[in-house]
Amino acid sequence: MKSDLSQLMRERELDALMISCPDGLASVNTSFLYFTGPAHVTHGHIIVVRRPDAPDLEVTLVHAPMERDEAARAAARAGLRLHSLGNYDMREIHRAVNGDRLAGQVELTRRLFHDLGVQGRVGFYGVDERGSSYIFLDALVDANFVEVVVEYDNDILSEARKTKDAQEAAQIRLACRLTEQVIGATRDFLRRHRVSGETLFKPDGNPLTVGDVKSFIRREEAALGLDDPGCIFAIGRDAGVPHSAGTAGDPIQLGRTIVFDIFPRWPGGYYADITRTWCLGYATDEVLQAYALVREVHDRAEAMLDTIRPAWEYNEMACDLFEAHGHPTPRQNPGLTAGYVHSLGHGFGLAVHEAPSMRLKALTGNDDPLPAGSIITNEPGLYYPDKGWGVRLEDDYWLNPNGTVERLTEFDPELVIPM
Amino acid sequence: MKSDLSQLMRERELDALMISCPDGLASVNTSFLYFTGPAHVTHGHIIVVRRPDAPDLEVTLVHAPMERDEAARAAARAGLRLHSLGNYDMREIHRAVNGDRLAGQVELTRRLFHDLGVQGRVGFYGVDERGSSYIFLDALVDANFVEVVVEYDNDILSEARKTKDAQEAAQIRLACRLTEQVIGATRDFLRRHRVSGETLFKPDGNPLTVGDVKSFIRREEAALGLDDPGCIFAIGRDAGVPHSAGTAGDPIQLGRTIVFDIFPRWPGGYYADITRTWCLGYATDEVLQAYALVREVHDRAEAMLDTIRPAWEYNEMACDLFEAHGHPTPRQNPGLTAGYVHSLGHGFGLAVHEAPSMRLKALTGNDDPLPAGSIITNEPGLYYPDKGWGVRLEDDYWLNPNGTVERLTEFDPELVIPM
Predict the structure, then answer these.
(1) Are the beta carbons of A279 and A417 closer than 8 angstroms?
(2) Which terminus in chain B has less CB density within 10 A, N or C?
(3) What gap in Å lies between CA A228 and CA B225, rounded to an integer?
């Protein structure tokens, strides 16, 4: 968690971090949002400096002059220092480097680092175009006014973000509550519709479709201030393909599996990630049995959650149980498209997929447990697209550093919705 | 535009392009969206291959097996070939490289390029973490199975995207229509409120606030399927800071300037970008005069729009006219915070800011005109935060390749809204 960052910087011998946020990328630039919270800063930088003799890190938000209001709001909320790019005369820099934009950015960085006392080993983070990142960092290596540090696997911010503090858990808990309001409203919305034969109909006489339901979901989310990259609402055969988002024109019908996987973000930037599977009116015996097995795997995994056992144990247990009931698993065949076709769960936070993972023993290569403070999903499922169905059940958990395991999701896991 | 890409690749001697979309970055990975359209593909690659003897480029969407449905939908819509990462045994690769994830990604890329016939000079695009981009591309240079090409300024995709074809213009026109529906609904919403003294009140007796209006806007956008990164609805002093998004608790009052700058995205991925300034009930003489001047600059710029004159002429004209009326401009002082404090306009499309620019002569360094096919904003404004007001008027235009200039926005530009 964020309070580990100072120690992590010491261990990795990093004197400073620079996290950039280019124009237009703020919404998914999680390394930046980690420090600012929900800022409306179009572009800028976060500079984190570790001073050997100071107890706390110095975190500065560097912003364009026109962004000064939103930068000040974010800084006040998150306890950041402010530094304006208005301190630098870009026309003078432009002239000094004969109009070379790359050289200008390097020179701006040199002046910025000088003014903020950044020196030594500096790590670089934040998303940007791959090509310009490569060229800029390469030029910075050549300029040699700091030692450029880059990390491929398990960079320092991912390592810190692997665990969440109480404030982050509170944001995710809130995102879960609001998301469950949307799930509940959607269930009510479905139940309000008239059924004729096997199909739900709208008041205008047309069949209710996946597209209609998604419009309803989007409006409910907007009313609660949730930001959604697009949920999965997939019926029948589509429910049998884990990441099929659903076909807009599909009619909503009784007895078919509906996989509703919703992962919106609360303005704080933190996600919820919840899946319910519904059968309206009734479910077939085959689906009832599969869902009962999925619930059993889910409940066993939940009961196992701790910060001691190797994290691969959860998914190995899931494979054991599914295989014992004759369902193919990725342990037997990684390319399979029917059976239990994905992993058991994943960490999430500012991104909808982040560390830690719950991968199989053969894939993870270590015996690390889930760390105290991690927030993870538990989402077993079974998928048979050729038979026209799929089921998944997904809840979220915080492995509270005080030693307890908190389920963050509460929504009724019942499969069959009486109509 | 996209049809220029083949020629641009020939000019730049590029045999192929690889555009990557890491997990979680799809929504803002505009280089990827440029080829797929509004895809729900969580992660994957676009590979563009130019074959010297073939008339058309080969564009392939490389996707994870679990994304096969959404990939197939996007491919059908956008005319792409499909290639699944399921063709590669990641466990075997993992073993072959002794579990080194970076080496595994390089080996996967080698096999992928082999199978798709990618060789020669390959450009790399798409957003990702800066550090891992640097390390991956560096490793690819060392591996030496293709020539790695990276571009800092004016990369080939930005160059192509500088101009829009009729299909793209149609998407932006639609985004503008829907955005204007939201603007109109917001104006009606404001007018429906009871006024007491200078303040608007809600039915519950509390003052109507900026936060209330933003909630209304968000719901209207959601109902129309618009995706919004967060609009500006700033009143009084906040309207005097161009990128202040507005203070949620501010009450809506008569006679104060409201800058409403809204830039949502239609699911096709293309933005609209429209600003209206409103004064409810009445405006002060000072604001009326300032807004009349802003409209004059706006209308003159609109009348000048062509594909012949240097693109710096528009903003120079704006500075001429504002300075003649005693308003400070960035031509005199780039760091100013009162007067005409920004540029006249910018291109947009899949990003809310993209090429071409309308910068001042001293900053642009060339006499290039706006290219035929460009889509740009025209958005003069005047800002006096210390006097408690700011005004801006922003419309969008397509410089149709057939030689005409089409205004894409139609919304009433009147300042004063009768209450």
Answers:
(1) yes
(2) C
(3) 12
Is A135 close to B125, i.e. CB distance below 8 A? no
Indicate yes or no: CB of A133 within 8 angstroms of CB of B128.
yes
Token pair for B252: 């809506």
**Which residues of chain B neighbour A245 with C-beta distances below 8 Å?**
40, 69-70
pTM of the model: 0.93
Sign for the pseudo-dihedral over CA of A162, A164, A169, A172: negative
Nearest to A241 among B68, B132, B351 (CB): B68
Is residue B345 helix, strand or coil?
Answer: coil
Confidence of residue A302 (pLDDT cuts 50, 70, 90): very high
Nearest to A222 among B91, B132, B218 (CB): B218
Which residues, 6+ apart, have CB-to-CB distance to B205 below 8 Å? none
Considering only CB atoms, which chain A residues are within 8 Å of B130?
20, 124-128, 133, 136-137, 150
Of the candidates B385, B399, B315, the residue with the CA atom closest to the CA atom of residue B357: B315
pLDDT in tens, A71-96: 999 999 999 999 999 999 888 998 89
Find residue B375's DSSP bridge partners. B398
Does B52 sit behind a cis peptide bond, omega within 30 degrees of 0 on the bond before it? no
- Tokens representing B162? 């500088």
Quote the tokens at residue A146.
């700091």
d(CA B235, CA B246): 7
A390's CB contacts (< 8 A; 6+ apart) are A234, A238, A239, A240, A241, A242, A257, A259, A277, A381, A382, A383, A384
Q: What is the C-alpha to C-alpha distance for residues B407 and A340, in angstroms, rounded to an integer?
A: 53
Segment (H or E) for B33: helix B30-36
Distance (Å, whole) CA B21 – CA B33: 9
Name, in order, each residue with C-beta under 8 angstroms of A221's C-beta and a sequence gap of 6 or more.
A182, A227, A228, A264, B222
* Helical H segments across A39-88, by residue range: 68-78
- Within 8 A of B25 by CB-CB distance, chain A residues are 28, 127
DSSP B371: P
Q: Which residue of A has its CA nearest to B90?
A: A334
pLDDT tens-digit series, residues B349-382: 999 999 999 999 988 878 999 999 999 999 999 9
Q: Which of B30, B101, B337 sits opposite A65 (nearest CB)?
A: B337
CA proximity to B151, closest of B35, B27, B19: B19
B56-79 pLDDT, tens per residue?
A: 999 999 998 888 888 999 999 999
Q: Which residue has the tokens 């124009």?
A: A23
The answer to whether B6 touches B56, Cβ cutoff 8 Å, is: yes
Matching residue, tokens 């760091």: B335
Sign of CA dihedral B164, B169, B171, B176: positive
Residue type, B244: S
Three-state DSSP state, B267: coil
Q: Which of A20, A25, A130 faces B137 most closely, judged by CB atoms? A: A130
> At residue A211, what is the residue type?
G
Name the pLDDT band for A41 (thresholds 50, 70, 90). Answer: confident
Query: Given an 8 Å threshold on Cβ–Cβ distance, is B133 in contact with A130?
Result: yes
pLDDT of residue B48: 93
Of A89, A150, A230, which has the smallest distance from its Cβ to B134's Cβ? A150
Burial of A57 (0-12, 13-18, 19+ CB in 10 A): middle
Q: Which domains does chain B have, with CATH numbers?
A: 2-161 (3.40.350.10), 166-417 (3.90.230.10)
Distance CA B108, CA A87 (A): 46
Shortest Cα distance, chain B CAs vs residue A258, angstroms: 16
CB B71 within 8 A of CB B26: no
Query: Nearest CA to CA, how far is A218 from chain B (Å)?
Result: 6
Q: Considering all CA atoms of chain A, what is the largest pairwise distance in Å, rounded to the nearest integer?
A: 76
How many CB pairs (< 8 A) connect A and B?
Answer: 196
